[in-house]
Structure of Rhamnogalacturonan acetylesterase:
Amino acid sequence: MPGAAVAAVAATGTVYIASDSTAQTYNSRYYPQAGWGQKLSSFLSSNIVVANHAIGGRSSRSFIEQGRLAAIHQVIRAGDYLFVQFGHNDATVGNPERYTSPADYKEYLRNDYIRATRARGATPVVVTPVSRRSYNASTGKFNVSFPAYVDAAKAVAREEGAPLVDLAAASRGYLDGVGIEGSKGIFLWLAAGQYPNFPNGVQDNTHFQERGAVEMAWLVSRAVAGLGLPISGEVVPGVR
């Protein structure tokens, strides 16, 4: 029946990711370091292509100033998506190349990421900044990372009616579940000699090792499944 045929048509398109090192794709020289953006395709059907433009050290402002958002906007099409997650580098007050005040961050999200993406017929999805390994030792609970930027992202998504993935809350809830010691297996905490790419070991409370990147990508996909967008039906059911 014609109606059945229409209903069976799957959503297609490309998910572009504009973000920083927490979402970046890393090559084998950095293994086991990974970003959630490089793992996201594992949780989406083959109808969706992920184009990960995330790169380390960028803020919402510098990503624009360096022409990286313009490069996405040159190729993004109707039916595509732009997932935008910044905040980690925006908050670096001591680095003028990166620092972006929460107020300016909010307006960059509004004008450059949300409205300019919609003008091209694509759908912007605001992603709040993923949590760092920052916790209250007394309670064992994880802190809200970059709260001013989390609040600004949520506010502008609400004001613009843009889809929101609250990865800040989802990742913090996940980390509370695995606990302070368990979170070392999520972040890039490696012993000396454990991996050839990190011979001296590392204790990194911001970036993820492969397991952490997979878990964060899974959290993003679960949130996308509940957004009521065409892509929501392309999230692969089941567990990671």
